[in-house]
Amino acid sequence: MNTSNITVPQILGDFIQNLPSSQEYLILSFSPSCIPLRQRWRNNCLSADFLADYLSTFFLGNNDRQPDSDKQAEVKSAVSYIANELLENGMKYSTQMSPFPISIQIHLNPDLIVFQLTNSIPANRTQQFKSYIQTLLNADPNELYITQLEKNEESGLGLLTMLNDYGVKLGWKFESLSQSTEMAVTTMVQLGI
After folding, report:
1. pTM, to two decimals
2. Which of 5, 112, 116, 169 is most buried by a 10 A CB count?
3. Burial of 48 (0-12, 13-18, 19+ CB in 10 A)
4. Are 27 and 51 within 8 A, CB to CB?
5. pLDDT digit of tens for each residue in the chain (193 aa)?
6. Three-state DSSP class for residue 157
7. Beta-carbon neighbour count of residue 153 at 10 Å?
8. Across the strands, what pairs with 112?
9. Domains of the chain
10. Which residues contact 94 (CB under 8 A, 6 or more apart)?
């Protein structure tokens, strides 16, 4: 077997390779080549709110019949924000007119919600993105957030807000796409509940 074209995925940050099994999950997939990005952009918030509404229904009170309204509102807000940021990043940085879909997965476990957004990026932008991730992983998120605000740069504020406001863990997996000038990037966000 010729293994010269096989590459090992590269993992950065807190990325769970084998997710714990979950009976509750949802996957949405979008084709970046089907609808123009500007039109798709308007649907990100609707998709994020749908995911949030769906997941919030699983949070019941002590008697497991009545909803725990406070917990539902907390989860709904967090899921909506995180899903929207992931979808926006996926749409913004994905390879235009790529044949590879953008997908978002949300897995519900007893004490953890795991988000996975997979999109493709041009292979020649991979190193720049990895450098940004290393900065994000090695810096104090509060200080980096303030620095970005002082520079008047919005880039990366969504991920920094997730770290600072929701205490998430972030991870990435980079994989080569065969016969392509694109890389598949999976961003994982782990939200404790």
Report:
1. 0.88
2. 116
3. buried
4. no
5. 344 444 668 999 999 998 877 778 899 998 776 766 566 667 888 899 999 998 888 876 566 666 678 888 899 999 999 999 999 999 888 887 788 889 999 999 888 999 999 999 999 999 999 999 999 999 999 999 998 888 876 677 899 999 999 999 999 999 998 777 899 999 999 999 8
6. helix
7. 10
8. 109, 192
9. 10-15+23-192 (3.30.565)
10. 32, 102, 119, 120, 121
- The residue written with tokens 């949070």 in the block is 59
Q: Please, which residues bridge with residue 24 across strands?
A: 108
Predicted pLDDT of residue 4: 40
**For residues 156 and 150, what is the distance between their CA atoms, to the nearest angstrom?**
13
99 beta partners: none
Residue with structure tokens 């994905």?
94
**What are 119's strand-pairing partners?**
185
pLDDT at 40: 67
Strands of 44-181, DSSP E: 102-109, 112-122, 169-176
d(CA 127, CA 176): 13
CA atoms of 97 and 99, how far apart (whole Å): 7
The pLDDT score that the predictor gives to residue 64 is 61
Alpha-carbon Rg for the chain, nearest whole angstrom, is: 17
- Which strands form 112-122's sheet, in the order they lie side by side? 10-13, 169-176, 182-192, 112-122, 102-109, 24-30
